[in-house]
Design the sequence.
């Protein structure tokens, strides 16, 4: 008899809370799946890639739908069949890349068990992914994340997923005694996320530090060591 475990496929009931979280964020339904089946995924990919280049070059506010359509190699009317506005499109671009990042992390973290190791990998990988996809990172970190309208957009779910991973691991570390359990878990998660995000933003604006991958790993290590140092002596 063949079951889900023998096939290497975990059911919802068989997954640990950590595995379930990773499954949820990598399988979040995308609006693209709700579109008509006869629409071309290739065309949509062209639109997203073209929009990313235009937004990274001109910024969202100065970009025009006509420019995005031209960059994608399609007509403006064709683009409007997929997206009703440039804002709608702007919030879809970062979501597609975040899904890829979550999947890369899910595969890379398989052999990590402790909250510390998982967090260290997550924070350093987020910076390295931004380095590898600088145009996307400029859009996300400099325009989308600080936007007052992000709370009303679809991308908020992906941004929330990004923070959920950090919060989950902060709680795991507290429960396992890796750092003090009497600290506010949300403040701790915000400290970790904010520090790495600021490092990424500084790199995007000034290309400092020169080696973002090395700097992010060192900063993540330092932040986690600071958390550990707050534990009472003898624990």
Sequence:
């Amino acid at each position: 008899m063949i079951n889900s475990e023998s096939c290497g496929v975990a059911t919802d009931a068989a997954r640990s809370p950590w595995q379930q979280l990773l499954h949820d964020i990598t399988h979040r339904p995308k609006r693209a799946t709700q579109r008509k089946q006869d629409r071309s995924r290739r065309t949509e990919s062209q639109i997203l890639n073209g929009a990313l280049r235009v937004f990274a070059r001109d910024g969202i506010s100065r970009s025009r739908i006509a420019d995005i359509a031209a960059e994608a190699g399609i007509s403006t009317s064709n683009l409007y069949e997929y997206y009703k506005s440039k804002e709608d499109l702007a919030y879809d671009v970062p979501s597609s890349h975040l899904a890829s990042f979550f999947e890369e992390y899910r595969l890379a973290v398989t052999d990590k068990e402790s909250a510390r190791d998982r967090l260290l990998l997550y924070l350093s990988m987020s910076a390295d992914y931004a380095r590898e996809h600088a145009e996307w990172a400029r859009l996300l970190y400099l325009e989308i994340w600080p936007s007052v309208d992000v709370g009303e957009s679809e991308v908020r779910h992906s941004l929330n997923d990004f923070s959920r991973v950090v919060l989950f691991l902060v709680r795991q570390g507290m429960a396992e005694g890796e750092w003090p359990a009497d600290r506010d878990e949300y403040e701790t998660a915000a400290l970790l996320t904010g520090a790495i995000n600021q490092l990424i933003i500084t790199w995007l604006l000034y290309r400092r530090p020169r080696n973002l991958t090395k700097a992010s790993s060192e900063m993540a290590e330092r932040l986690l060591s600071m958390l550990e140092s707050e534990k009472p002596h003898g624990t």
Q: What stands out?
A: The chain has ten helices and no strands. The domain at 17-28+93-229 is CATH 1.10.357.10 (Tetracycline Repressor; domain 2). The two ends are 48 Å apart (CA to CA). The longest helix spans residues 86-108.
